[in-house]
Each structure stands twice: as structure tokens, then as C-alpha cells.
């Protein structure tokens, strides 16, 4: 497992931007480092919408925004003088996407499990994720990706970057 | 088609008062206007509307105009008909808020998936002439779990040793039913004590109402698990044990050990989770499961499968369940 093969989980949130920034600053003096910026697409369930058209509109708005912020996060590496060839993007489409049929897709049932699957497949030695800091109640009722990763990730190093907002 | 319901009612229900005969309805979009005496015509069958159903909340009747009690004219069987209604609203769980959605499509899917599985309410979906998703449900003649518990007049100790072991076995079956939904990538969405009915004729425990759903979250099944935990606390305690009741106990001459915030339920600080503190004869293994839903806990069950495994271990090992193990070998 290559510890310099780093997987950064990104979801458009402020803490995930902070995790990208942190990673960029950490690795800028390390040669031969490889970063994969991972976005796992999550789209709202069709069940929530009265018509298919409303659902598709919402999905289109979201995917456009996801891709825009992913590119913005990618630029953070360039701004930290990390060579373009050292940074990849991986955008995993939602299995329920109305737009794209992909061989590999995310079911949306557990982002943590999806991240670990990608980590294993890509032989990543390090996972980086931002954490916004949630209460015990929120963790219990809604779940937490970083807590789930902490429990389940055993095959590599895990960097959890606390949000400055906490 | 005749839009008045006189003739069809005269044919099947000659005694039905003519003055109350309404319309024959084939488009259910405007469900508020469909009322007593109207006949909904769906998939070749006539359903006489006898009333709008209500939900019991905090002692108040909350009318649900999209849910009609009906008589199927061709067979005389009573049905519940749920008409298409989408809505979203904020629900509060303790200090947290979350957006909840009502989705007829989700309920239809679960009805189809659980067809023939008596752990769930049964019914079928038909589309009206406008393509509205209408669910025609079999009525479960039974009583909500909380009402059944509330009617018991015995002491907790007697309840715990006589009634509770059988209820615990039935609860494990009900939890396995939810596990089955999760295994099939579905969630119940509204697990509450009054959405679990004990059928009068069979004594089976059956889940009802699957049309709630929630938005994106890391663990889409966590809210179901939370609901199951709340029902477990109710079952073990025989009824909800509140902070207010505990204050009374505390002031009594024979007080229980000091109760702290950590003994209360997570996200519901007014409810006791550490039930052993009120009833010391609750075995540790069972109380430990309850404590997974307390404010003290920091490692939660990650799935309903994990929760059911803990319940089954308790059932198989604790002396209080010895007789029930013989009556419920399937557990």
C-alpha cells in the first residue's frame, strides 16, 4: 500500500474544502505524491418528488453544482503549486442518476463504505476527510461519514480534518 | 358513465339513504372534496366512502383527508383507501429537526415487496384515471401496541415475568421484519408505537404506514433503528418512564439510585433509558441493550441486524425468557 497515494473525499461542503486545502499544504513539499479527489454523487430519491420532471430538474441542478465545486477544489492543488499530473479526479455517479448509466455507481446507502471500496481498488494508503463536528444525537439519528470511516477503515491511514468552524 | 352514485348504491346497498348518495369519482386528485356517500370507482371496483380517517396525536384527532375508510360494494369488505398526496414538513426529534416527505410511490413499492408477508399491512396499488397512485389496503382489526400496554393493570414486576417475555419474542419478529425491509434497500420511515398493531384474531404484530421517507443522510436506516429503540424502552418499562415520574420516585421514602442525565434516552432527555434504575430486577444483558439508546452511549448499533442479534442473544440466554423460548422456537 502506497501511503503517498492519497484519496481525498470531497462532497462540496466547507469542511471538505478545508480537507483539500489541508492536504495540499501537507503534500506540496513531497515529491512523487499522487492525489485522487473523490466525489461520490448523492441524488435525492425520486420518491420525494411529485413528478419525474421535478426530480430531474433537482438532480440536474445538484450535479452541475457538484461538478463546479469539484473543479474548484481541484484548483486548490494548483494554487498550492502541486503539479497537475499529480492530481486526479474521480466522480462516482449515483446508481439512481437519471442522466448517466455508469459501470461503477454509488448506491448512496453508505458513503463510508463507498470510500473504502475506492480506497482498496485504487491501492490508496491514505484517506483524507473533513469533519464538521456533529452532536452525539445527530450522529445517532443521521449517521456520520467520518465516524463510520473511523470504525471501518483498517487498511490504511485516515486523516480527519476538523473544520475551523467547530 | 353516470356521475351520480344513486343507482350503484341502490343495487348493492338498497338501505343506504338516497339523500346521502354522492358522486361516482374516477379522478381522485381533489381528495378533499371526496366525502361520505361518494363512490370511488377504481380498477372495475366500486368503493363507498364512509369516512375520512384521523390520526391520534397527543390526544387530538388529526384528520387525514387523503385516507378514506370505504366499503367495497361488490364484496361488502371494508377497506382503507389512501389517495395520492405528496407533502414535506419538518419533524423535531429532541433538539434536532429533519425534513420528512410523504411519498405514495414508496408505500406502493413496499406493499408490492411485502405482498403475502403478514408482518406488514397488506394492500395493492391501482392508478385512477389521472394516474394518481391509490393504495387499497386491507383493514387490520387490532390494537396499537401502546394502547395494549396501557390497558395492563398489573405491577411492572408481574408484567415483566408474565406478559413481557412473549411480547419480547413478538418484538424480535417485528424487528426482523424491519431488517427485511433494510435488506431490500427500503426503510419503514415512521416507526412508532402506534404503527405496530397487535391483530385481535391472530395476536400477530403487524407494521402499518410506510409512506414517510427522509432526505439524504449517511445512514438512511438510522431513524428506523431509533424508532425500534424507543419501542424497546416502552416494552421493557411497560410504559414510557418520564423524568417527571422519576422525580416522584425520588421524593418517595424508598428512592431509587440517583438518576443522572446519562440514564435518559439520547435525543429524548425526558425518557428513562436505564430502566434497571427504576426496576432493579431487569437483567444486565437486557438493560445493556436499552443503554445503547441512552445519552451515555457513544457506540451505536450500526444496523438493525446488529440490534436483532443482541435481542436474540438475550432471549436465548436470560432465565426470564425460559418458558417463552418453548412457545417461540422460531426466535
Automatic annotation (TrEMBL), chain A:
InterPro entries referenced in this protein's UniProt entry, alphabetically: Rossmann-like_a/b/a_fold (IPR014729), UspA (IPR006016)
Domain UspA span(s) in chain numbering: 5-154
Pfam family of the protein (one): Usp
Organism superkingdom: Bacteria
CDD domains cross-referenced by the UniProt entry: USP-like
Protein's UniProt name: UspA domain-containing protein
Gene3D superfamilies associated with the record: HUPs (3.40.50.620)
Automatic annotation (TrEMBL), chain B:
Classification via InterPro entries: Kinase-like_dom_sf
One of the record's GO molecular function terms: protein serine/threonine kinase activity
Keywords from the UniProt entry: Kinase, Serine/threonine-protein kinase, Transferase
Protein name: Serine/threonine protein kinase
Lineage: Bacteria, Pseudomonadati, Thermodesulfobacteriota, Desulfovibrionia, Desulfovibrionales
